Structure prediction request, 205 residues.
Amino acid sequence: MTLRIFAILVLALWTAGAAGAVELAGTVTRVKGDATARQDGEAPRPLGEGSAIFVGDAVTTGIATRLEIRLTDDAVVILGDRVVLVVDHYVYAPGRGRGVLSLFTGVFKAASGGLAQIAGAPFRINTPAGTIGIRGTEFWGEQRADRLLVALLSGKGVFVRNPAGRVDIARPGFATRVPAPGQPPTPPFQLSPAELQRALGTVDF
Prediction:
């Protein structure tokens, strides 16, 4: 009887631990400056090369910081300084999965991975100004003070949508802007070489 009770207790503890386990979303591959990740209710974890990023993490970067994360589907996200990014959901297996990130403020560059090859574009980035949908591409974005700017760098394209409208960008070097809360994304417009260079400078190591 004692052994049976012990086995039941062990199983209960293991089940509770498994239920509270967090899923791996990616790994830090490069970092310059100060960056942390924090699960709700826990102390911030300093991030360095090789640090794990988990579903539920709130990732923040400091001044003059760059942080590169390789996600589990081989997507790569580079964060600039003073970013707040939350990994809401990230699950991937060949042919299925879903990824949702929330960028509250800051600048980033992303190159999509396996999720972007799945029908329905199940990889997206939410921001206060709109949602960015990704379709096998590399792109750059900046969310500042309720304004959003998104530029396509290469690949099939991205779209930006909010309750006021949706815009698709299919030509590299073109961008869209959400100028204020409640406003629709602007029609795609071409960035000058100098504007593109300045944008990329915000995420260059």
